Amino acid sequence: GDQLIPFPACPNSGSPPSSVLHLCVPFPACPSSGCPPFLTPKIALPSLQRSSASGAEDEMGSMDLDGSNPAAAAAPLVPGVGSSAPPVDKGVDFANYFCTYGFLYHQKEMLSDRLRMDAYYNAIFENADEHFRGKIVLDVGTGSGILAIWCAQAGAKKVYAVEATKMSDHARELVEANHVEDIVEVIYGSMEDVILPEKVDVIISEWMGYFLLRESMFDSVICARDRWLKPNGIMYPSHARMWVAPIRSGLGEQKKNALDSAMSDWYSFVDETEAHYGVDMSVLTKSFCQEHEKYYLQTSLWNNVHPNQIIGSRVVIKDIDCLTATVEEIRNVTAQFSLSIEIDRTQLCGFAGWFDVHFRGNVQNPATNEVELTTAPSVDDCTHWGQQVLSTAWCLWLV
User: Does some domain include residue 265?
Assistant: First the structure.
């Protein structure tokens, strides 16, 4: 009795539409690099039910989020690292995504995100006495080095700032310019390969990607935690959550129109190639269509969703404890959830996904002032992460 929302069949392909909506979220590729790896959410919607006056009837859904790098499956564990070490090909990661971190324009975008900056600044300085003063700190993926500098200013005894790109040169410049070079040691290299001289009390990192897991960086944080964090050590942030909510949006229609335009252009190309050069290209139509369906209909889109676009309840699909999470746990995130449609006579056009993180310390040493960083839809407080829109193949009218 389940009613799944399919993709439309490829024109003249001879293949039926898929029974499940597959949505692929691509990593942005570095210029001139090859094809990027993919994060592959899958959404299946059983029969839709309108919420009654009492809210007893819910709309049900399920979601799989494959957060792994496709190149990771055959990659060996890093020698000398425990079983939680990330089986991820970091060369592929660097070529396709992390190379962008080596440019100041990308760092400036993140440093200009006031919500991001304020959350980390407040988390560090409002908990300086308990968590940073006199402590050994590891900053994983230090980037510009600003978190490491703040940790030093908050009283850290020593800060190891590890950066896998040549942004480490700029980080070293900033550390010296801010007179904390006696405390902060910038280390150029992959976290998986770096050998520290001692264990650390705190690991801090801004590892979050779009929809939390769209970057293959949390695996490096887990590796650092398992190798270098002392017993009863603290993770900054300590917890993370992934959220979804049903939305109305015109983005899906825009993507379908773009697909129609691409196919129209292809048919013209086929006709012109045969007319001018005597070669029939139509045998490739099915493959071209499938390729573009994947790009336009099975790929999520970054967007700043307005709160008014949300038509139902918001649900948490994943809770992560950064002190105990494993690579296996984040590689394949699966969730079943129920939610209520709270607006009459509206359209369901897909889902928006976002995340929040919390700085709580740990059970033995909780934060004096807990800080939250959220990327939820907002009228005024938007972040550079925005939200990921997972559009259905077409909008469903709910009456």
Answer: no
